[in-house]
Write a structure and sequence with these properties.
Blueprint: E1 2-6, H1 10-35, H2 47-60, H3 62-65, H4 69-88, E2 103-108, E3 115-117, E4 122-127, E5 131-136, E6 146-151, E7 157-161, E8 176-181, E9 187-189, E10 194-195, H5 202-217, H6 223-257, E11 260-264, H7 268-271, E12 278-279, E13 287-288, H8 292-304, H9 307-317, E14 322-325, E15 350-352, E16 359-361, H10 362-371
Parallel strand pairs: 8-11, 11-14
Antiparallel strand pairs: 1-7, 2-6, 3-4, 4-5, 6-7, 8-9, 9-10, 12-13, 15-16
Helix pairs in contact: 1-4, 2-4, 5-6, 6-9
Amino acid sequence: MSRFRMYPTPAEQAALLEQCRHARYVWNLALEQRSMWTRDKGPTPRFAEQCRQLTEARAEFEWLRAGSQTVQQQALRDFDQAVKNFYSGTHRRPTWRKAGVHEGFSIVGGQASRIVKLNRKWARVLVPKVGWVRFRLSRAIPAAKSYRITRDRAGRWHLAFAAIPPPIPAPGTGEVVGVDRGVTVSAALSTGELLACPGLSDREQARLKCLQRRLARCRRGSQRRRRVKAAIAKLVARAGDRRKDWVEKTSTDLARRFDVVRVEDLRVAQMTRRTKAKPDPGRPGGYLPNRARAKAGLNRGILANGWGLLVQRLEHKAAGRVERINPAYTSQTCSVCGHCAPENRKNQAVFRCAACGHQANADVNAAVNIAAGRAVSARRETPARVSPKREPQHATSA
């Protein structure tokens, strides 16, 4: 999906927010109708019936009639498609859209009459009930039949076209690379490269902590709290932009350099869940320590390094060339002799095999095992138990 930054005027921003409110209201109303279904009642209204109800509501309420019918009907169509995706098992259940969080609407129609190029840096798009809004030409405009206008929590407006770019062709060299994802090192390659995902600088992190403390002292509903939340949102959006930029560049580079990319088969969503509370049997109403603070820090580190997004973009750009490997004991297995033991990994950065004495960076050693497809299903203490067929043909310590 190609996304462009929009620069609406204050009057255009107010009109765009009004369209977002209408689309959010229609979506939530359709979701409420769907959630009211019970076995003793008949079927809930579908898309065609909801469109007829929308026409009647627009004739009765002037505030709804002031909005664009195209935007409101498209919100109903998007909700109907979201329900179909949920029952097909490809997406999650549709949820409520909240003000300030889900600000956006979709438009389907002819692109040629709605997009006008002003010069090599700027263009404008025609939005129903709003008019012409300028956006920055950061790349070529794709040939898409629909686009979506959104506003993030930092107050930035974006224009996204629903166009899927073609995958990157394989170089044809036959090279295979293993990618080990971590918290200290974002991505370690079997070639020996250590890649780090950029985040906020030390000065920006200090400012973020100061703003978070200031937010805790603000009164709810005050203008000061609103300004502090906007400042925090800008810093968080800056970190997210840097992470996405790193993921795009890294995934493109790997797709162009290697024929096969092997990664660990990790369930990031399950790994980043909060720890469950442990009730204290000897103290009713009390709880035992569950290291929730340490787990929260680990979750932030995993999400800040873009584990899931990196693999997702790799599968988009190198379609059919990404292989998921069982991650069991890849960080404890020697990439030279195959000896697997917990004492092989001395610390986070150093790997020293207790059997053959091979020493290398721990993340690179795990990446070599991933590249060779090495994954043990049980703990093996001696190299004699490792099958020769599972040994890499050209293992390197890199």
